[in-house]
Amino acid sequence: MDANAKKRLAAQASLEFIPPGTTLGVGTGSTVNQLVELLPDIRDRIDQVVSSSRATTRLLEQQGFEVLTLNEAGAIDVYIDGADEATKRLHLIKGGGGALTREKVLAGAARRFVCIVDDSKLVGMLGEFPLPIEVIPMAQEFVAGKLVKLRGRPVWREDFVTDNGNHILDVHGLQIGNPIELESRLNQIPGIVTVGIFAQRPADVLLIAGDDGVREIRA
Ligand code: 5RP
Q1: Catalytic annotation, pick one of 66, 72, 85, 103
Q2: Residues with C-beta less than 6 Å from any ligand 1 atom
């Protein structure tokens, strides 16, 4: 089975986590795009929709959904999103698509966070995927210097501006043995808007699609 078919399978499995009357948060990326294509089939179960990026909003609107802001919707019942790396402890690296800040806000606002991945994303330790960090543009070099002191190799994502008008540093060479601690430490650096480690608010459910079907890990 190719990666796209696995992403479709994971997206399909996540529909079970959307009961009638749901205020749904929708993430960003190719896995979530598959979910968006499936949502019209369960339209009657979805009360309100909130999106984590302009790209996802566009796709949702193409499917006929009215997209609310988080301020309008209030709380989110279920947030469904992909990841760049995931561990069995449900810690994640996210931000490959650059939407990490709004994704982290929606995950934080959600009663339940369901993460959907194909099995290539499951790792023993986070960090092989370069860690995305959203920074305020004027602080980029300052933050990069701090990351070098932590033995990371930050690389500016050229020609990319986030939905919030900021830049992304992709940090190579980190072996993230303690994601909760590193997320906390990086959050202290002035100029960092969002760190792509999702460990302090991990997923509640991880759906991993492989050749043998979808495996589920719960917190
Ligand atoms: C976007 C993200 C995505 O969830 C992550 O990059 C996974 O994307 P894909 O489903 O395309 O592999 O964090 O900011």
Answers
A1: 103
A2: 27-31, 81-84, 94-100, 103
